[in-house]
């Protein structure tokens, strides 16, 4: 598919989910604040240089484009995730490697809890949790956190800090985010309705949720339960007028909204840690908007298992390129000298990716001494570059020590 081919589609300037297809086969699913701007971005030359070989291959194969408009960015997020989980399109990689991604878990209790759990912790916690439903994976932790804040204001629910029939209201009950499970104010049957609507909403079926609520409102009014009818009416109104400005902000330009160049400057830093070539690990850290974004940190257990920092960095970058769903960096920072810089640049060049790259060299005390590489691309971001590099070193050493301690 080419930019000329896309022009025949009259995409709306509205949030929604888009599908690249080869015939009837869905190759890739994405979400957008503006479908028009987001799809157009795939054919911007500068962005093509940053997307990587995987997405370029997908565009070469795609012959058709479809989309579905949603009323909000929140609904686009949930619909995209549900669709990817159901169809597992070839070029959506998150289902293949989701250990670092987040999931929403609804437990199978009399009063189910709604929990946010990382993929790597999911199996360990499943032993102690009877799971009613699992939704995800969600690659961006801060995005999911904002989404749950919006959802919980519409459908207050119980989390793991709320005990059934405890002595006093939990904190979330006091601020209206728990329906009163802790104080016995809600019955098992009424809470089950909330859970049922939450499941439908997470599956991208807001219309069904609204129909359910409208029937419930009419039934309550007929029984002269006017307070309950008013409560349900307010839920319907909230669903039809979702305010997700915070969710848009949490995602930046990866949802297609326009942000200032500085707010859009994502730096990824990479480092390796090992002891005499054993227990070799690598990490990726992220600095956005001048601050670390720990939700975006990633760990890589490396296969080199030898004293080869260049080879290890090349393996990390190769594996990172298998994740086109992660936002593309505006600058890559590696720990090392000219050999490491050229080694990583070689991998990026072979993949057809044009990410600017710098390397932070160190003195004998492992303190930053100089920054080499495409320095002109980091103008004004020296502090962020050093912060990202420092975080990568700390993160790598900490994880390596934990692995060594476990091995011993």
Helix content: 40-55%
Q: How many helices?
A: 15
Order of helices and strands: HEEHHHEHEEHEHHHHHHEEEEHEHEEH
Total number of beta strands: 13
Share in β-strands: 15-25%
Based on Cα principal axes, name the global outline: globular
Structural class: alpha+beta
Question: Could you walk me through the main structural features you see in this protein, from its secondary elements to its overall organization?
Answer:
By secondary structure, the protein is α+β, with helices and mostly antiparallel strands. It has helices at 3-6, 35-41, 45-51, 53-61, 73-87, 119-126, 141-154, 171-174, 188-202, 206-222, 226-240, 245-251, 309-320, 338-350, 382-407, and strands spanning 16-22, 25-32, 64-69, 102-107, 114-118, 131-138, 266-275, 278-288, 291-292, 298-301, 331-335, 357-362, 368-373. The chain has three domains: 3-87, GIY-YIG endonuclease; 102-248, no CATH class; 266-407, Nucleotidyltransferase, domain 5. The protein is 42% helix and 21% strand. The strands form three sheets. Strands 7, 8, 9, 10, 11, 12 and 13 form a seven-stranded mixed beta sheet that branches. It has a three-stranded antiparallel beta sheet with strand order 2-1-3. Strands 5-4-6 form a three-stranded antiparallel beta sheet. A hairpin with a 5-residue loop joins strand 12 (357-362) and strand 13. Helix 7 runs antiparallel to helix 12 and helix 10 (206-222) packs antiparallel against helix 11. The longest helix has 26 residues, at 382-407. The protein starts with a helix and ends with a helix.
């Amino acid at each position: 598919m080419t930019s000329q081919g896309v022009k025949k589609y009259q995409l709306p300037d509205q949030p929604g989910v888009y599908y690249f297809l080869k015939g009837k086969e869905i190759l890739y699913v994405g979400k957008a604040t503006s479908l028009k701007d987001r799809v157009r971005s795939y054919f911007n030359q500068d962005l093509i240089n940053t997307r990587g070989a995987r997405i370029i291959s997908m565009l070469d194969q795609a012959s058709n484009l479809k989309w579905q408009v949603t009323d909000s960015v929140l609904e686009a997020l949930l619909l995209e995730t549900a669709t990817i989980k159901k169809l597992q399109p070839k070029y959506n990689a998150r289902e293949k490697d989701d250990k670092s991604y987040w999931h929403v878990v609804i437990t199978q209790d009399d009063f189910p809890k709604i929990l946010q759990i990382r993929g790597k912790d999911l199996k360990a916690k499943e032993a102690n949790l009877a799971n009613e439903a699992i939704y995800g994976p969600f690659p961006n932790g801060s995005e999911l956190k904002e989404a749950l804040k919006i959802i919980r204001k519409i459908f207050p629910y119980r989390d793991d800090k709320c005990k059934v029939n405890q002595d006093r209201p939990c904190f979330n009950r006091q601020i209206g985010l728990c329906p009163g499970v802790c104080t016995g104010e809600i019955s098992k049957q009424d809470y089950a309705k909330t859970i049922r609507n939450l499941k439908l909403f997470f599956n991208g079926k807001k219309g069904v949720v609204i129909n359910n609520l409208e029937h419930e409102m009419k039934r309550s009014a007929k029984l002269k339960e006017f307070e309950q009818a008013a409560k349900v009416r307010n839920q319907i109104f909230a669903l039809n007028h979702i305010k997700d400005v915070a969710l848009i902000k949490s995602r930046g330009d990866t949802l297609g909204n326009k942000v200032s160049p500085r707010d859009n400057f994502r730096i990824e830093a990479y480092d390796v840690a090992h002891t005499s070539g054993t227990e070799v690990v690598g990490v990726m850290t992220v600095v956005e908007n001048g601050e670390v974004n720990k939700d975006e940190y990633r760990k890589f257990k490396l296969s080199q298992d030898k004293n080869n920092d260049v080879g290890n960095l090349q393996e990390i970058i190769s594996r990172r390129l298998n994740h086109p769903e992660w936002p593309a960096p505006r600058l890559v920072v590696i720990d090392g000298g000219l050999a490491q810089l050229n080694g990583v640049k070689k991998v990026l060049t072979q993949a057809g990716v044009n990410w600017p790259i710098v390397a932070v060299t160190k003195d004998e005390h492992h303190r930053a001494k100089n920054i080499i590489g495409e320095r002109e691309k980091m103008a004004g971001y020296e502090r962020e570059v050093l912060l990202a590099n420092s975080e990568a070193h700390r993160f790598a050493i900490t994880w390596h020590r934990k692995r060594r301690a476990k091995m011993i």
